Structure formats: structure tokens, C-alpha cells
Amino acid sequence: MMITCFGKNRISGKLRKRDSSSSSSPPGNWTSRDEKDEEGGKIIFFGRRNHLFDLDDLLSSSSQVLGKGSFGTTYKVTMEDMSAVVVKRLKKVVVGRREFEQQMEIIGMIRHENVAELKAYYYSKDDKLAVYSYYSQGTLFQMLHGNRGMYDRVPLDWDARLRIATGAARGLAKIHEGNNGRLIHGNIKSSNIFLDSQRYGCIGDNGLTTIMRSLSQRTCHSSGYHAPEITDTRRSTQSSDVYSFGVVLLELLTGKSPASPVVTEGETMDLASWIRNVVAKDWTGEVFDMEILSETGGDVEEEMVEMLQIGLACVSIKQQERPHIAQVVKMIQDIRSTDPA
Q: Where is the segment annotated Disordered (predicted)?
């Protein structure tokens, strides 16, 4: 069910973001400009509960830039009551209002502990916004790669990585059930995976690919996450989602960023190709992240090898050889019972 909050039938405006990189900046980072035409929009919420903010609250609240990506700029917006949400200002939206709203409805219907909740959306001529739950622990990318080599770095241990993989797999499986089993994420990567309250992986940025301009071939190739067929077609599928998720598993195991090519013996390879090459030479142990090698005991090492095999299955060059995400969930859960479920 969708409702407009506080009985406001229509709120028009153009949202502007003043330069800001700190959440400590005073309220008023967002400003609005009234439109004389009828191309303004209204903020639409999902769910039956009462919401404690509206568009005016978003406009007047303090904000912090969390990141800029292919789909737009993401902000943390802190309300007067100190609650926080994530607001994604979408760029390069290529569909009209009707298609935009239909896709938002499909995304908004998904409720799962391992999928970032779409709380609301806003559509106007000049701005398209998606409002999500905020996760205070940051992204998997930050946890894996932030402060590498620094004395104050807190590395992710193997137990944490296994829980993240378990939750993210469940989340992607739930996403693929959406829209009568046809929903595609289209942008699986470690910067779109967060930790929920139980420290399981939780997937964000769900389902935006279908309303955005296709990524360029260069972007697809350089990201390190996209399946080989995407470089040519630039059309995501559930199978290509599985490939991208497999790259995330390999990233968890190696601690290497897929966006940084690996150079070995004078040859430049993407992460998946490098791992295939190493495993083919029976040097499997050399792919694992040094930060978790110190934990290596018999059981842990076996679990890491099992996860590696799952990741390699997901990144098979041939789409028909990749497992379905439901199979991936079962294989990961079979590595170790990480919870009573």
C-alpha cells in the first residue's frame, strides 16, 4: 500500500544540494525552487505505518555525501530528531513517470531482512529520488578495503565474511522472486552491500537498472563485477546478477578490489580470470586474503576452499553453467550453519 504523508497531495520543487561533505553542517543543505508548471511531484511512502518526515523535512535537513556512482549521488540525511535515511538522487533516468512509478512499486513491495528497504520515492521533472533505510556500519567495500595497511584498521575475520555472504545471497534470492520471478538487480557489487542488525549482508540499490540509461561498455568492463555478456549487450539478467555476486564472493576471499586489475607474470587479468589461473596451477592457497590467513586452521581453510568453489561456479563464462541463486544460498549455508535457520 502506498500513501502520501501528512495529507499533502502534491509537493513541487527542485531539490538542490549545496556542497557539503560533513553531517555536522547546519540544517538547510537542501533548498527548493517552486515550479510554475505541473511537472512537480509528490513523495510516496510504502507500508502502512505512519512516517515522521515529508519532503519539506528532507529539504531542510542536514545531509552528507556518501558516494557518487553510475546511478547518481547518495546522501545520508539526518532529521531534526536525529533519525537518518539514505536519499539517492537518480541521474540518467530514461523512463517516464508511469514506468518509474511502476518499477518503484515493484521494488517497494520487497520486504526482507537482507534487502535494503525502499521507504519512499519522489518524481518530478527535474529530480527523481529514492529513499532507503540507513545502515550505520557502512558498505562491504569500505570494510574490505578501507584503511588497508593502516595501524587502526579492523580487518573482517572469516566468520564475519561468511555471515555477510550468507545474508547477501538470501537477499539476492528474495530480489529475484520479485515481479513474478523476473526482477533483476543489475548492479551487484560490494559498495551496494551493507550489514544488518545481525551483521548479515544486506543488498541495496535494488532494481534501478531497468529505469536508468545503460552503462557504457567501458564502465561495464572496468567495474570488474559485470558478466562478460554484459559488455556486449549491456542488458542485465538474473544470470548476470549471479556472476556479479560470484565476484563479490571472490572479493571476500581475496581482499582484492575487482575494479583493480591483477598483474601477474606480465599479464593483466580481472579478478575472476586471475583466480582461475592460480587455481589451475594448484596454487589455490595463494588467492586468500592475508588478513584471514592467520586464522587458517583445518576447518576454516576447508570452508574458504568451499566458498572459492561456489564463487568460481557463479563466474562461469557460460551462462548456462552458473547456478541459480537459490542453489547458491543452499551451498553457502551448507558450508557451516551460521544461524538456527
A: 13-36
Nearest in space to 76 (alpha carbons), one of 4, 32, 138: 138
| Strand arrangement, sheet containing 72-78 | 2-3, 43-46, 118-123, 128-133, 84-90, 72-78, 62-69
pLDDT confidence of 217, banded at 50, 70, 90? low
CATH, residue 290: 1.10.510.10
Q: Which of 50, 52, 41 is nearest to 1 (CA)?
A: 50
The answer to whether residues 147 and 232 belong to one domain is: yes
pLDDT at residue 28, rounded to an integer? 33
Query: Are 83 and 13 in a shared domain?
Result: yes
Angle, helix 97-108 to helix 158-181, in steps of 10 degrees: 130
Q: What is the pLDDT of residues 278-322, one digit of tens each?
A: 888 888 888 999 888 876 666 888 899 999 999 999 999 999 999
Binding-site residues for ATP, in ranges, read 88
Please enumerate in sequence order all residues whose Cβ is within 8 A of that of 134, keeping only pairs 6 or more positions apart, or say none.
Answer: 76, 84, 85, 86
Give the list of residues 6+ apart from residue 124 with CB closer than 8 angstroms, or none. 12, 13, 14, 35, 39, 40, 41
My answer on whether 165 and 295 are in the same domain is yes
Q: 174-185 pLDDT, tens per residue?
A: 999 999 999 999
* Annotated binding-site positions: 88
Domain span including residue 68: 2-133
pLDDT in tens, 200-212: 999 998 888 888 8
Give percent helix, percent strand, percent coil of the chain, each to the nearest 5: 40, 20, 40
User: Is 304 a member of any domain?
Assistant: yes
